[in-house]
Sequence to fold (471 residues):
Amino acid sequence: MRYSNRYLNAVGRSWNEGRSVEELRQTFKSGKTRGVDWRKAQLRAILRLIHENEDTLFQLLQSELGKHPVESYRDEIGVVKKSVDHALNCIDQWMSPKKGWLPLLFFPASRKLLSEPLGLVLIIGSWNFPISLILDPLIGAISAGNTVVLKPSELTPKCASFLANKLPIYLDPKAIKVIEGGSEVSNQLLQYKWDKIFFTGSTKVGKLVMAAAAKHLTPVTLELGGKCPAIFDSLPILDIEVATKRVASGKWGACCGQACIGIDYMLVEQKFAITLIEELKKIIKRFYGDDMRNLKNISKIINKVHFERLRNLLEDSDVANSIVYGGSFDETNLIIEPTILLNPPLNSEIMNEEIFGPLLPIITLDNIKESIEFINSKPKPLALYAFTKNENFKKQILEETSSGSVTFNDTMIQFVCDDFPFGGVGQSGFGRYHGKYSFDTFSHEKAILERSFYFELGPRHPPWNNFKLEF
Ligand code: NAD
Fold:
């Protein structure tokens, strides 16, 4: 097999033909990562890393994704700090054995559940939150006592290099390693035997990860994407402004729509569509301005390839005709204006592929209840949003649709809630993390039963006879 120079450089520099895997395995075997003191020391080191390099991180995120420092703090740096603080506060409790009752038949005996680390784990990240999507799962993996290989996305190479250069300075380099590189490196890593693979990325690559993991029966967590819908029911006038602000945040506010839980498309009753669109236009102007040459507070598109992909989504003339706001592109700076489309064709690409950008199709329905059938006609989304005050409708949404999460009357904030499981279902992935769920994701909960020698129930042993059958 022949590899490109870039691949060989990456592998040669940090990987060294599997020696690192062996080193991490030896570290795990030594038992060093199992102790609570080691785990806490690594967690504190992540806090120090973030604290001492905050300005650098702001600069990197600004330069690679055009993120404003406030956005970077909210979605990356603050998220990581909060997760570390939470883990440090809870780790003793997470690690403590969980005792439970046994039926009388077992008497005298005791039972408990003990969480043990899985071993050596691989974490592969995506580019849209290049720091938090690597460090957040790492917090879970360390809390659970594993050794870890991290593979950040090649599409944010400065952030990846930052992690590769800084982590060995702050964290235990014999237990945690960063490997830089693209799909070739990722693929090579997937050939090794891991005790867990935690993957964040597209559904397409998720299938490759799962196929590679199957060869070793390695458990996987797949944090994937899809089309997240937002249902917008008719609301009292006072609530509309708050709701549309939250819609704008959920569409354009996090990495310019390049977010797995960002709103992909909206569903609204025909009679309410104009109100929604007019309110959204006002909010867009207030949040981002309306001068395409000087848009504020909005991230850029990650690269030319994705920029062209998004531009192509609008190329179909029926789709282009449905634009009711925006639609401008600044190719030099990779900026796309927040764009609203009203009723693009349902068979168009924009209505069938994950958009992952600032284009917002709004689909009108005669009755908002039809939104359930619409959502159910597509793969199960990672997040479902619904703005409604109708309790019966909320109940119907919960009972009749399936999604990784449901958030009523807001967007995105479910992601930052400690101990609130984050993950998909169906095509949007499986497994979950955040807080205790992260700890569990990287642990095996061992069932331990201990009997005493005092009492022995005769009928459980041979020789068999009919009396024992009736016992
Ligand atoms: P991607 O699947 O292209 O890449 C993700 C990672 O996989 C990268 O590190 C990349 O190097 C690696 N990779 C790419 N091709 C590979 C291959 N052939 N074999 C092995 N590894 C490979 O995804 P992306 O473009 O980085 O991210 C966008 C997607 O990720 C969207 O679908 C989005 O919804 C999803 N996403 C999901 C979450 C979540 O938490 N559920 C978060 C962010 C992004």
About this structure: The first helix runs from residue 5 to 14. Residues 1-5, 7-14 have pLDDT under 50 and may be disordered.
